[in-house]
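4.2 Preliminary Data

To establish feasibility before requesting continued support, the project team ran the inverse folding procedure on a target of 515 residues. The structure was first converted into the token representation described in Section 3, and no sequence information of any kind was made available to the design step. The complete token record follows.
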């Protein structure tokens, strides 16, 4: 009997033994920096001449690993392997598939700090952010393993005398998984194993900024007993291999997490029928956010300021759920703003290998340039309160930045910046605050800080986001507790880590037998 699901606890780094274990894991990771990683196609490791070179965003010179790069020919070979493997994998027992996930969870748990240390190095995550990423990956394995066990019998439907009807779920086929770099372990692992445990075979294309941790995860799934051909690992350029896979007539579904523009492109391309294709492709697309914390006048203002700072600057604001807008009722606006500036001035920023760093770098040069560009726009549109500077000499560091007095329609109030920048706007009352909160094309996360019950209820009805939080920050959804996904241009609201998620990877079949 499988134990009930419980999410993986976060590591307590105030304890010396945990700190020492983490430092040791950083050493372990250092010992294998710069190695080569192969593609995995039909169980065979394939090395290519062309490589994706993954580097440390806190220290550009440091090479994390060199990962073979798939081209169209290799993507085609992987597709053929996945098509073939589907014929047996689709008939495999759900219990066996779940066991592979539970086994993988146990293997990762044993090397938990090593995976987190690799995230520190490859993605520039501070310790506690890396630890949360690894914990979430374990959670996805444990949660989806249990979910398939609840779905395997299907759902009861009516039968009549001499007639027996069944309604059950079957897998779709070959899924293309395209993942982002900001949760390079959790989202990559979660989207991959959801597809696998539902009985599909997979082509996994990880983000080019973080392919090493994906390669390590693929090794774990092999070790956990995944048969060959079921998961094919094909890192490569999004625009080259990505388009090819999305367009492929044998692709049955695409599970994408990433930016709005790439998500839209995939959605559109997947809707076109290609020669030899006999189905409508399904697309799961989880995209960007422009997430708001609303602060009411009857509120715990210290909680409000702490929540804004933690949600805006955790992992340098590089979360789809990050707070990039604070909308504060005018009566308490100055108080909250000043406290946020004060708290921001106390944040430590630097190489995230040091435990004391609250913030590390942003992911790469293009992210650095884009965020600095938005900071320049912010200086025109609002009042710079703190931060606003960056230094890309060794790594890609940007100071946590607060802008005040923005027009709700200003560019930095509307577009996803994906960096450590938060913009403040004033609302005359709570109703106006909710109106401003809803004024973007996104609808991913949001939070409301208030002690007014009627206002909470209004927000529950009118604040149009997929994940709404009361009296806390707007980041940090936990698998099985706060299923995650957004409305409008934030995507298809797939609710990763929720009870309906696996169904998106399956189709229902009705069989009716007469006796
Ligand atoms: P991205 O640039 O859209 O890339 C995401 C993935 O798409 C990468 O693997 C990328 O490959 C690939 N890709 C690029 N062009 C493609 C194409 N034409 N066809 C197919 N695939 C293509 O996003 P990102 O910068 O990695 O991630 C940050 C974004 O993700 C933010 O907008 C954030 O809000 C969003 N996000 C959303 C959620 C959510 O749950 N809603 C969660 C996390 C992140 P390359 O790396 O090779 O370019």
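Position-by-position output of the design step:
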């Amino acid at each position: 009997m499988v134990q009930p699901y419980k999410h993986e606890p976060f590591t307590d780094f105030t304890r010396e033994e945990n700190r020492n274990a983490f430092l040791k894991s950083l050493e372990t990771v250092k010992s294998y920096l710069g190695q080569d990683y192969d593609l995995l196609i039909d169980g065979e490791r394939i090395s290519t001449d062309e490589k994706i070179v993954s580097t440390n965003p806190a220290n550009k010179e440091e090479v994390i690993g060199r990962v073979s790069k798939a081209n169209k020919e290799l993507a085609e070979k992987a597709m053929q392997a996945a098509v073939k493997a589907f014929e047996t994998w689709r008939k495999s027992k759900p219990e066996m598939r779940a066991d592979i996930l539970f086994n993988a969870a146990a293997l990762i748990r044993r090397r938990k700090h090593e995976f987190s240390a690799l995230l520190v190095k490859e993605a520039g995550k501070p310790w506690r952010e890396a630890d949360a990423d690894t914990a979430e990956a374990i959670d996805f394995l444990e949660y989806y393993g249990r979910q398939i066990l609840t779905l395997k019998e299907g759902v009861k439907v009516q039968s009549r005398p001499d007639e027996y009807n069944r309604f059950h779920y079957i897998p779709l086929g070959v899924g293309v998984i395209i993942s982002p770099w900001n949760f390079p372990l959790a989202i990559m692992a979660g989207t991959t194993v959801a597809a696998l445990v539902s009985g599909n075979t997979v082509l996994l294309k990880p983000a080019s900024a973080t392919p090493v941790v994906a390669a390590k995860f693929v090794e774990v799934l092999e070790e956990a007993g995944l048969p060959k051909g079921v998961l094919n690992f094909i890192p490569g350029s999004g625009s080259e291999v990505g388009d090819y896979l999305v367009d492929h007539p044998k692709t049955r579904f695409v599970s994408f997490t990433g930016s709005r523009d790439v998500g839209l492109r995939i959605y559109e391309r997947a809707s076109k029928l290609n020669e030899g294709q006999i189905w409508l492709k399904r697309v799961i697309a989880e995209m960007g956010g422009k997430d708001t914390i609303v602060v009411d006048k009857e509120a715990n203002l210290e909680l409000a300021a702490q929540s804004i700072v933690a949600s805006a600057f955790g992992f340098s604001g590089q979360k789809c759920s990050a707070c990039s807008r604070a909308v504060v009722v005018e009566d308490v606006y100055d108080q909250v703003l000043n406290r946020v500036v004060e708290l921001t001035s106390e944040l430590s920023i630097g190489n995230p290998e040091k435990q004391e760093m609250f913030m590390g770098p942003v992911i790469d040069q293009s992210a650095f340039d884009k965020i600095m560009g938005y900071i320049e726009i912010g200086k025109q549109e609002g009042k710079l309160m703190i931060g606003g500077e960056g230094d890309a000499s060794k790594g890609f560091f940007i100071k946590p930045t607060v802008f005040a007095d923005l027009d709700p329609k200003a560019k930095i109030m509307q577009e996803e910046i994906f960096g450590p920048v938060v913009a403040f706007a004033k609302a005359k009352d709570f109703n106006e605050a909710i109106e401003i909160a809803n004024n973007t094309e996104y609808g991913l996360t949001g939070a409301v800080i208030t002690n007014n019950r009627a206002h909470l209820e209004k927000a529950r009805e009118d604040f149009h986001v997929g994940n709404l939080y009361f009296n806390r920050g707007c980041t940090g959804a936990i698998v099985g507790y706060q299923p995650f996904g957004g409305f409008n241009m934030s995507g298809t609201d797939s609710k990763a880590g929720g009870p309906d998620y696996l169904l998106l990877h399956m189709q229902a079949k009705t069989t009716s037998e007469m006796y």
